[in-house]
UniProtKB/TrEMBL annotation:
PROSITE patterns: PDZ. It holds the Pfam family PDZ. PANTHER family: MULTIPLE PDZ DOMAIN PROTEIN, PATJ HOMOLOG. Residues 18-105 form the PDZ domain. InterPro entries: PDZ, PDZ_scaffold, PDZ_sf. This is PDZ domain-containing protein. It comes from the Eukaryota. The lineage of its organism: Eukaryota, Metazoa, Spiralia, Lophotrochozoa, Annelida. CDD domains: PDZ1_MUPP1-like. It comes from Capitella teleta (Polychaete worm).
Amino acid sequence: EEFYKAVQLAAFGRKTEKITLVKGENGSLGFGVVGLKSEHRGELGIFVQDIQLGGVAARDGRLLEHDQILAIDGRLLASSISHQEAISLLQNTSGRVTLVVARGP
């Protein structure tokens, strides 16, 4: 499948994980993101900056600080996506949100 191949390319050999979270009543997923240059590629990536105690992501336990978000609801995040665009994608999803993240060296 093309999406899977694209995710593997974007991960650059790092472990990937698919994580589905359900937004809380306040519409929050319980984590913050930041746009950073990836040390693996030198391209901009969207990374988990912090996980809020007691929030949806913290209770789920799979999403970790410093994970790189590669896809949101099946949409691969291109290296050109801005921090604000990623936040908008996360905020504009309703209910269930599926992330594909990469982590590790």
